[in-house]
Structure formats: structure tokens, C-alpha cells
Amino acid sequence: MSKAIYITTTEPNSGKSIVSLGLMQMLLGKAAKVGYFRPIIDDYPDGGTDNHITTVISYFNIDMQYEEAYALTRSQVNHMNNQNKEDEVLDTIIEKYKAMEGRFDFVLVEGTDFSSEGSIIEWDINVLMAKNLGIPTIILGSGVGKTLDELVNNIYMAYDSFKDKGVEVLMVVANKVKPENIEIVQKGLKAQLPKDILIGVIPLNPILGNPTMMEIVEVLDGKVLFGKEYLNNQAGHFGVGAMQLRNYLTHLKKDGLVITPGDRADIILGALQANLSVNYPNVSGIILTGNLLPEDSIIKLIEGLSDIVPIVSVDDGTFSITNKIGAIRPRIYAENIQKITASIHDFAMHVPEDELTERLITFEPKGITPRMFQYNLLNRAKSDIKHIVLAEGLDERILMATKLLVDSNAVKITLLGDPKTIKEKVFQMDLDLDLDQVNIENPTESAHFDDYANELYELRKHKNVNQAMAKDLMEDVSYFATMMVHMGHADGMVSGAVHTTKQTILPSLLFIKTRPNVSVVSSVFFMCLEDRVMVYGDCAINPNPTAEQLAEIAISSSETSKFFGIEPKIAMLSYSSGDSGVGEDVDRVRKATQLVKERCPDLKIEGPIQYDAAVDAKVGKVKLPDSQVAGEATVFIFPDLNTGNNTYKAVQRETGALAIGPVLQGLNKPVNDLSRGCTVDDIFNTVIITAIQAQASTSK
């Protein structure tokens, strides 16, 4: 079953609680443990809590604490955004959601309330959260004050906005629709939306649209004099008792709220008596304005009555109080069982629950966002901490990345270089890096130097390497770091910020060597675009691979892709698609594709295929209509290094994509190369990936 569903609205006061309560009731009938999560909530001073959270947790008796059910308050989000920490907002939300996902079979996620200014920004936040959590969405719109066209267009634009950002919309719900308009709203939505989108239309329910006496007391800061046990009474109408009693009684309506000055004993007693009389509508409560209380004799009379509606005293005058009551927005809270059961009933009656359940069961997310990808990487690294050696310990970018890595508690780090020089460098940079938490190794002064040189001599003496040559090579940080990995003194190595790719990789080819059944070391980049992560290979190692090498690169890349949580759909790139092209280059790609199919028949692969047909669903459908890969490719195998290297750099520069790599594949133990133009983030991500690769190599 899909792990979660995201509920969002198009505007304030659309009745989101109806969908939340109805969905929770539905889900609890399908899954043993269902959690509830709100990424962002409003601020509640003086110890107040979010009503949505307390209502759902209390009514459904969910085994979770209030603090677990949300990530951030609105003021915290604003503060982070003002400090340009938007990524930190997403990271916090993802972390809290993931913690809940691990505890529950299913998580109901409820978006923001649109209670602040700037609805467009808030709308974007909801799209961003649903996208990065990787969960399908239900969109809710209100029919209050809208024509049919306005309601349908409002919901369609919301659907289109989510769909455009790659968020899967399972259902749209039109809420608060006049009962006589249900059928025409359903037809209007069906005509506008794709056929696979589920549609619910919920009628306006007076029970849910009226405030209770409890809500009125809270808003008015009133003092309850009588009838506390009836505070869940709903005020369907309200009116001011300013005229004589005989005239006021004729204006009473069902569930009416009486507003009158506290010294109008006639109105007070008349309203109480009318509530008991079968000849008049029932009264929901009485508001006494102006901080005036009835005389003692009247109080005594009221105390003797058998049935008393809530009587509430307030400070403000009648005019002010009437305006405040008119502005109250009704809500659903834990104690109001009538509203909760009405919500659950309305949802079940007017939403296709069986079809929705089926969609949730069969839903599979398409792709993964860069933010979720990076979160998953960090969590995997933390699950089994590995020791990574960084060969270029004097580079400022390496030192800044080391600071971040130490703070992350995800890896153990060794820096190569002179300890005194590294300490001076850290001081000059004013970098808050605690070097006591880092191992620093100077190759020429290391206790392992002679052992490493002897090991290199034994491994390479058949290639005419003598002891002196072995010692000279071991003074090179790339050789020393790689030997640390080979000897088991480190789990992985990262270099290349200063050294060339050849300098970084050559030692690993000499004595770490390739895995069994692997003849070619290759590389991939994880290309983190705005809304997805793709795998590019080989963009760093093999200049002109043969068909056999291309096939092996494709298979290795699919394994890397799968290992890092990306379903491999392989596009073997060329300048033509399908059978349309001829020539040596395209034939080589065609042969490589066939070799992959023979060796790994379960892999989804297409080739030769052009880049546009691989990434664009519309183009893919035209050029290769029967393909499982066209328009949905996740792994892109380039025909040569020239094409691959230039393409990844072009995509990176033009789209602002984060390129993580090159990540080497095919070696017995992880060694990874950095670009000499790498950033601190590049180094951080490469080290984390190396640590995860090390988890796999040490478990074998």
C-alpha cells in the first residue's frame, strides 16, 4: 500500500477537516496503524495547540505525541526563509515525515490552512512539500460564493499546477456545494478533468457550517454562567433581543443564539421558556452583553430550571459582540462528536472510497526529488558509519566539506597532509572545525608507510617496480590513500579536487582492481534536476567504448541506479531512435542494447534512442510508441566520453542541476574522483555516496 496521501486546498475555509476525518476513518479500516502529519502549522501563543492535530489524534486515539505530528510553525518557516534557509525548511519537514513513515503503515498528510497573507506563496509551498515527500495528492475546493465555471476552473487550475510539477493527483473534491447543484458540479468536473481523476462532490451541511457555543465563548472570551454541559450546541442563527419580549419571540429561529444586555431579564427568561416550549424553536444559547448580570432574584429563578442552555457573560457592547459572532469561522474540534460523525458520514456518502482505496494500493511514485534523494543518502550513511580518506587535506574546499561531514555524524574522516600545516590552514580560514574529531595522516611520517610500500612492491614487482620506486609512489597522496583502502585501514577514498582523474584512478586499477565479472571501470553522475534525479554514464572515464563496453557500462549503471533507490529505465543514446538511423556509431549502440537484453532480460532498456525521445513523453510516444522507456528514462548511457561529458556539463550549467559524481563503478572497493572545479557540496555528496558504496563492499 502507498505510504501516504497529501490533502491540500485551493483557498481558506474550504472544509479540509471533512476530508481529513473521512480519510482517516477510511484508512483505519484498511491499515492497522495510521499516522497524521502537518508539515507547517500556525503559531499558537500561550500554550495553544493546533486544533486539527488535537482533534484527529484524540478522536481516533492515534498512538503519537502532539509534537510528532508537525514539523514547523509558520513563524519558524518565515524566519528560515528570511535567512535564505529554504532548503533547511524542506529538510526538517522530510526528516519529521520520514520518522513517522517508519512507525506507521500509512500517513495522512494535511497541508497548510491558507490563513496567512500571500496565498500564491503558500500554494507553492504545498506543491513543493507534496513533491518532495513523493506522495499523491487530493485537492479540495469550496463552492461557496462561486459559479459553476469558477469552481470547476479553480479546481482544474490547482490540478494542473500540481501535475505540472510532477505531483500525482488521485482525486479532486468540491466541498460546500448546494445540494441541488451536486450533479451539475460532477458533470462539470468530469468534462474538464482527465478520466482517471476521481471526483467527489460534498454538499453544504448546516451542521458543519455553524459555530458551537464553545467556539463562540472562546472568540468572545466569555464567562459561562450556566449550561456548561451544552457548549456543543450549534448556533444556526443569531439575533439581538432589543425589542419587547412579545415581539422578539416571533423572531426566534431554530438553534437561535440570543444576544441581549445582561439586565434584560424579560428576554433572558422568555428565551429559556421558549426553549422548553413545543410551540417555539429551540435556543442554542444566550449571550449577555455589556458585562451586565441579571439580578439575584433572576439568577435564583434560572438556577431552579430543569433545563438550561448556555448563558454567557461578555464585556463588550451588543453591537461589537454581534459583529464578532458574525465573523466566526466554524471549526471541528475533538469534543464535538456531532460534527465529526457528520463529516465522516458526508465523506463516505459523496466520495468514491473503494476506488480511492484501490488507487492508494496501486500507486507507485515516479522518480525521486533531489532533496529526498540527498536525505536518503545521508540517512543511509548514518545507518552504518564508514571511514573515508580524503587525499587532498590541504585544499580549502576539502576542509570546509570536512567540517560539514563531521557535523553530520555520517562518516569518519581521515585527511592526508602535514598535521601542522592543516591546523594552520584551518586557523587562517577561521573554520570552526574540531580537528580532534578528524584523523590526520602524513604519508611520509605514517607508521604504515613501510608496510604500504612493501605491499605495493609485492603487487607490482612483476611489472619491474622495485622497493625504491614503491616508496616514491607511496609518497603520492593518491597512492597512499588508495593503499589505505586496499589494506582495510579505510573503507573508501575520495580525491580529484587538485589531482587529475588519471592520478586519482590509476592506483585503484593497480591494486584494488575490478569486481568479478567486471572488465571495465566506468562512472555515473547523479543529475539532480528540479523535480527528479537521473543517472548519466559514462561521462568521465571511457573515451570511445566498444559495444561490449557500452553494454557493461549500462548494466553497471543500472545496478548503481537500483542501489541508490532509482528504478533503472535505460536509454542507450544515439543520434537516431529505433530503426531509423544507420552508420557505425548507431550500429554500435544498437549492438550494445542487444547485448544488455541478452545478459539481463529483465532490464527495461531502449536503444538506440535520442535524448528528447528518452525524456519527453510526447516525443517518446511519437517516435517509439511501444517503448517502456521512451519519455520515462532514468538512466542515460552516452555513446562516448565527448558526448557524455559535454551533455552533463551543459545540463548542469543551463538548468542549475546538482551533478553528484563522477561515481566510479566496477571496483572491488569504493574510490571516487572529484572534478577540479568541484564545490564544497560536491565533495560532501561524493563522500556520502562513497560511504554508502563502502557499506555494500564491506558486507560482501
Automatic annotation (TrEMBL):
<comment type="function">
    <text>Involved in acetate metabolism.</text>
</comment>
<dbReference type="Pfam" id="PF01515">
    <property type="entry name" value="PTA_PTB"/>
</dbReference>
<dbReference type="InterPro" id="IPR042112">
    <property type="entry name" value="P_AcTrfase_dom2"/>
</dbReference>
<comment type="pathway">
    <text>Metabolic intermediate biosynthesis; acetyl-CoA biosynthesis; acetyl-CoA from acetate: step 2/2.</text>
</comment>
<dbReference type="InterPro" id="IPR050500">
    <property type="entry name" value="Phos_Acetyltrans/Butyryltrans"/>
</dbReference>
<dbReference type="InterPro" id="IPR004614">
    <property type="entry name" value="P_AcTrfase"/>
</dbReference>
<dbReference type="GO" id="GO:0008959">
    <property type="term" value="F:phosphate acetyltransferase activity"/>
</dbReference>
<comment type="similarity">
    <text>In the C-terminal section; belongs to the phosphate acetyltransferase and butyryltransferase family.</text>
</comment>
<dbReference type="InterPro" id="IPR027417">
    <property type="entry name" value="P-loop_NTPase"/>
</dbReference>
<dbReference type="InterPro" id="IPR042113">
    <property type="entry name" value="P_AcTrfase_dom1"/>
</dbReference>
<dbReference type="Pfam" id="PF13500">
    <property type="entry name" value="AAA_26"/>
</dbReference>
<dbReference type="InterPro" id="IPR002505">
    <property type="entry name" value="PTA_PTB"/>
</dbReference>
<comment type="subunit">
    <text>Homohexamer.</text>
</comment>
<comment type="similarity">
    <text>In the N-terminal section; belongs to the CobB/CobQ family.</text>
</comment>
<feature type="domain" description="DRTGG">
    <location>
        <begin position="215"/>
        <end position="325"/>
    </location>
</feature>
<keyword id="KW-0012">Acyltransferase</keyword>
<keyword id="KW-0963">Cytoplasm</keyword>
<feature type="domain" description="Phosphate acetyl/butaryl transferase">
    <location>
        <begin position="372"/>
        <end position="691"/>
    </location>
</feature>
<dbReference type="InterPro" id="IPR028979">
    <property type="entry name" value="Ser_kin/Pase_Hpr-like_N_sf"/>
</dbReference>
<dbReference type="InterPro" id="IPR016475">
    <property type="entry name" value="P-Actrans_bac"/>
</dbReference>
<protein>
    <recommendedName>
        <fullName>Phosphate acetyltransferase</fullName>
        <ecNumber>2.3.1.8</ecNumber>
    </recommendedName>
</protein>
<keyword id="KW-0808">Transferase</keyword>
<dbReference type="Pfam" id="PF07085">
    <property type="entry name" value="DRTGG"/>
</dbReference>
<dbReference type="InterPro" id="IPR010766">
    <property type="entry name" value="DRTGG"/>
</dbReference>
